[in-house]
Design goal:
It contains 11 helices and no strands. The protein is mainly alpha-helical and 277 residues long. Helix 4 packs parallel to helix 7, helix 4 crosses helix 10 and helix 10 runs antiparallel to helix 11. It is globular and about 75 Å long. The two termini are 16 Å apart. The relative contact order is 0.11.
Amino acid sequence: MSKYKAKELAVGLVVPLVALLAWQTVAALGWADRNVLPAPLQVWHKWLDYLLPLQDYAGFRESGAGGWLAWLVSGELLHDALGSLYRVGAGFAVGTALALPLGLAMGTSRVVYAWLNPLVQLLRPIPPIAYIPLAILWFGLGNAPAVFLIALGAFFPVLMNTVAGVRQVDGIYLRAARNLGADGPTMFVRVILPAAVPYILTGMRIGIGTAFIVVIVSEMIAVNNGLGFRIIEAREYFWSDKIIAGMATIGLLGLAIDAGMNRLNNHLLRWHRGLEH
C-alpha cells in the first residue's frame, strides 16, 4: 500500500472512530437505555457470538480437508452472509444480462428507443419493494422471488446508464470513424462500445449497490435465512445488539463490494484519460 493510500485510509477512519467513541461514552454514562441502544462493546461481543459456529467441530472431521471450512461456514453469520451474497450475485447477473443488450439496442437504434422508452420510463419509478406481493404470488417463497426483486433493482440503473453512454458518444469520434471508412459493426465495436464503457460500469456499480439494498428487504419477507431475515428475527425477540451487529455486517459487505467494483472499474478503464497516472 502506498503512503498516499495509507494516509487516505487513516483519514477515512477518523470520523467512524470518533463516532464509536461518542457512542461508547453515551452508553457508559447511562444516557441511553442499553436495551434500545447497546454499547459498541456489547454489539462486538454479540457479533462474535453471531460469527462463531455453534456446532462442535468433531462432527465435521469426517469430511476430510473440507471439514474445517464446512465447520466455519456453519456459523450463523457466515451462513447468512453467504446466502445474501448468493442472492445478490444471482439477481445482479440476471438484471445485468437483460439490461445490457436492451440498453445497447435502445442507445444505438432510434426506432427501438422510441418503442421501448415510454414503457421503461413508466416502470422505472416503481420501487422493487412494490413488487413483493406479486413476486410471492408468482414465485412463492424462497430464493426465486428474492432473485426476481434483486434483478429488478439492478436492471434499471444498468439499463439507463447504458442507454446514456451509447447516446452521448462524442459526434467527433463518429465522424472520424466514418471518414476512415468504418462500417456499422466496426463503428459499434471500436467506437461506440468503448466510449460507453465508463457509463456502463457506473451503472453496474449503482446496480449492485441497489441489489444489496433489495436483498435485505426481500429476505425479511420471502426467505428463512440471510442477513435481512436475521435482523427481522432479532427484532421479534428485541435483540437490539444482534440487530446492530447484522446492520454492521451489511455495511461491511456493502463497503467491500463497492470497493471491489471500484477497483474493477479502475482496472478496466486504465486507458481512460481521467485515470492515467
